[in-house]
Amino acid sequence: MFSNDAILGFLFISLICVGLMGNLVLFMLYIDTFLTQSCLKKPIDVIFIHLTLVNILTILFKLIPDVMSLFGERYFLDDVGCKATLYIYRVTRGLSICTTAFLSVFQAITINPLNSKWAWLRSKLSMCIYPSFLFFWVINLLIYIHIIETVRARNNFTFAGPGYYTVHCQTSQLEHHNSMAFLNAMVIRDLLFVSLMMWSSIYVVTLLYKHHQRAQHVHNLSLSPQSSPEIKATHTILLLVGCFVFFYCLNDFIAFYLFYLPKKNPEMERITAIISSCYPFLCPFVLMKNKLSKLTSFLSRMTIIFSQRTFSR
Fold this sequence. Notes:
Elements: H1 4-36, H2 43-70, H3 79-110, H4 122-143, H5 145-150, E1 151-153, E2 169-171, H6 176-218, H7 229-260, H8 266-288, H9 292-312
Helix pairs in contact: 1-2, 1-8, 2-3, 2-4, 2-8, 3-4, 3-6, 3-7, 6-7, 7-8
């Protein structure tokens, strides 16, 4: 019989393998579009590329240390390793909420009618992408500097008081004003970007409802100028935002509970690891839903190229 740790370890390995495969395939698909089919590339594809990279980093720096600990390597990280892995994981998780919110707002503006008061933003969207990415990186790198100052490797299994805690890392005892400033920065960021997500999602649902009403009025959906790709992409992004909000809020609720829990529980930390990996794990498969034909074509071409190189040897 397998132990609970071994079963969890195999579950984490499955999440890593499938999640990485999905995100890497999607990343390669977008890169292939940029390099070989430049006429088909869209500005929003850059946001998808950034999101897949963030997902890959989140999966790697969250789940691999947990897998190592589940198979008995509890002290394989020193202080520097703990600071690096936890810092990169928290930064990429922060980038995930920023990028998803930006994606939602971007799509809401993209499908706006030409006579909308937001229509003037369309022409400026492409110019905002890279500055927005820079802002997201800077703000998250600054917020989590606190981790570099306080995190250290665990040398025993007893830890009490507020602070970060994983199977392999923990924070030193925090001063109250420092921990409150750190938590306030995270809460403000989360509220801001979740609010943007919710506003843009409600706005998009309103637009889709009006679009549906107009389509019913003329009894022919194909007469609508924004019927197929934009509407399908919007449905996908709404699904993506819904998944993100659910898993992110659930994970934050458990994380804040664990942060202030007097006696830390390793099993609860493993549950948060699974929950925090659900969004980067599911994200590529949600996005692939509307790209099945492109994905099939891409994989066929890759298979042919690989076969030709193999036989040429």
